[in-house]
Automatic annotation (TrEMBL):
Keywords: Cell membrane, Membrane, Transmembrane, Transmembrane helix, Transport. It comes from Oceaniferula marina. One of its GO terms (cellular component) is plasma membrane. Residues 492-504 have a biased composition (Basic and acidic residues). It comes from the Bacteria. It is a multi-pass membrane protein. This is MFS transporter. The lineage of its organism: Bacteria, Pseudomonadati, Verrucomicrobiota, Verrucomicrobiia, Verrucomicrobiales.
């Protein structure tokens, strides 16, 4: 028994050869993750309670922040490939430190009068009596809006450069485990941010001042990440064969951008990413659909934070247990399996609630919904921990050595297009199937399946299952030449020894 356990955890020994630069990269991501996950949870509350934004405007600016991240990332990917890892980290973390500092200190130190008064005077001089509200923002509002845009730009730098660093500082033998460790630490940061940072600061300083303390905490985390970045040696290639030689130092980011677009490997990658949109959009349901689904079908004071912490907790535990096992499978197979499990989790929400009520131990409607919600979270988390780390590894590994950041940046295009569409569609479906007051109708049986929340999830399920089906159908085309790097990725992660072959 002891030997079995020892052999099981010996799979982690590959990380003994990982360089300090690999661990510094993960430390940077961990510190930035603590800041990001704690900030994004309270950003809407901060804008309303600390800055005077109304509910509509606070929602708009949270949306602008997430949209601008994806918009900026298209440009910064090629810039990162041009200027290198260390400079990119300094720029990204510097922008984050400045913006988080402004957000944390602005409400206490910036006047709410000057710019607004000047704008009113200008419009009055030209006979405009009802100018757009945007131009009448206070000094505080202008500062906060500017900080949000700066923060979006800084966040956009981090994704591509972290992926580039992880690829450079891991060898072919350690890469799969390296990306799993990265995803593991990111979810640990999410748990700490949700369970300790947010509740701790808001409980200690109160809801309003606690928001400021959380943003100040993010500023400190940015400084910690900068210290880690200063210790990185970007010339340390774990895989010497991937070292970029004869690189043109005068390359322009726009030229790299256009070259990437013309490459067959990238075009096939873009097709692959487009095919996965159905499942990847399920991740956005966590903040687009689930809050209203929970509160309207259970109770208005449902503990959203507790529910949101289940997913990263399961992922952390699952990755620790499954890393030695899943590393024996090829990347593309794990992506397909993970997508299928994640999509299948929606079946639990799409089952007619009367069927759930007939299960042993289910005595009322609240228990029925709690059962399917918790079970769906668990199943979805299993699919996510299989799918997401290998998905990011796949994108990083298929890219040429000198264009990893560009590939990572441009790979966001399908999500950039689909996010606003999904937001629009989710609003329509919620208003049609999960409106305020739907619970009493369900209790009285005065609602058909095609008018119920379960039918809404059936629609999402049908969209989600298209992803694994499409990837399976086009797998040979996606992984065929000239995207040779894609096939190399499978070779790296499948480890075709007898032990791995048994799992094929």
């Amino acid at each position: 028994m002891l030997n079995s356990v020892t052999n099981y955890f010996s799979e982690f020994k590959v990380l003994k050869s990982a360089s300090k630069d690999f661990w510094l990269t993960n430390a940077i991501q961990f510190f930035d993750g603590l800041a990001y996950f704690s900030m994004i949870t309270v950003l809407a509350l901060y804008l309303t309670d600390n800055c005077g934004f109304n509910d509509v405007n606070s929602g708009v600016w949270v949306g602008i922040f997430t949209l601008y991240i994806t918009a900026f990332v298209f440009a910064v990917g090629s810039i990162c490939d041009t200027i290198g890892i260390k400079k990119s980290l300094y720029i990204g973390l510097g922008l984050l430190a400045v913006s988080r500092g402004i957000l944390g200190f602005a409400p206490a130190y910036i006047s709410s009068y000057g710019i607004k008064h000047t704008a009113e005077s200008i419009f009055t001089r030209f006979g405009v009596t009802n100018p757009p509200e945007f131009f009448l923002a206070s000094d505080l509002a202008w500062s906060v809006k500017a900080a949000i845009i700066i923060m979006a730009l800084g966040t956009a730098f981090m994704g591509p450069v972290i992926m580039t660093s992880l690829r450079r500082f891991t060898s072919k033998d350690t890469r799969a485990t390296g990306f799993n460790v990265y995803y593991l630490l990111m979810n640990i940061a999410a748990i700490i941010a949700s369970a300790i940072v947010i509740d701790g600061f808001r409980r200690t300083f109160g809801p309003v001042q606690g928001n400021l303390a959380i943003l100040d905490f993010g500023f400190v985390m940015s400084i910690c990440a900068v210290v880690c970045a200063s210790r990185i040696d970007e010339d340390n290639y774990a895989e010497e064969s991937e070292r970029v030689t004869n690189q043109d130092e005068n390359r322009r980011p726009l030229a790299i951008f256009m070259e990437v677009w013309r490459e067959k490997a990238f075009q096939k990658l873009l097709l692959f990413l487009t095919l996965t949109i159905g499942v990847r959009l399920v991740f956005t349901h966590q903040f687009l659909v689930m809050p209203k689904y929970y509160t309207r079908l259970l109770y208005s004071d449902f503990e959203l934070g507790l529910a949101n912490s289940i997913n990263p907790t399961i992922i952390v535990i699952g990755l620790i247990i499954l890393i030695p096992i899943i590393n024996r499978y090829s990347t593309i197979k794990l992506i397909i399996v993970g997508m299928t499990i994640s999509a299948a989790s929606l079946i639990l929400l799409a089952i007619p609630i009367d069927w759930v009520m007939s299960l042993p131990g289910i005595n009322n409607l609240t228990q029925a919904y709690l059962f399917i919600i918790v079970t769906q979270i668990l199943v979805f988390a299993i699919g996510e921990l299989i799918f997401n780390p290998r998905f990011m590894e796949y994108i990083a590994s298929v890219a040429p050595q000198d264009r990893v950041s560009s590939y990572m940046a441009l790979s966001a295009l399908p999500t950039f297009i689909s996010k606003p569409i999904n937001g629009f569609v989710s609003g329509i479906l919620i208003s049609r199937y999960c409106y305020d007051g739907v619970r009493p109708k369900i209790e009285t049986g005065n609602i058909s399946y095609t008018d119920s929340p379960e039918f809404m999830w059936m629609i999402y399920l049908l969209l989600a299952v298209l992803s694994p089906i499409a990837v399976i159908a086009l797998r040979n085309f996606i992984t065929s030449e000239p995207a040779a790097a894609t096939e190399a990725t499978e070779d790296e992660t499948s480890k075709p020894d007898q032990k791995g072959a048994d799992h094929e």
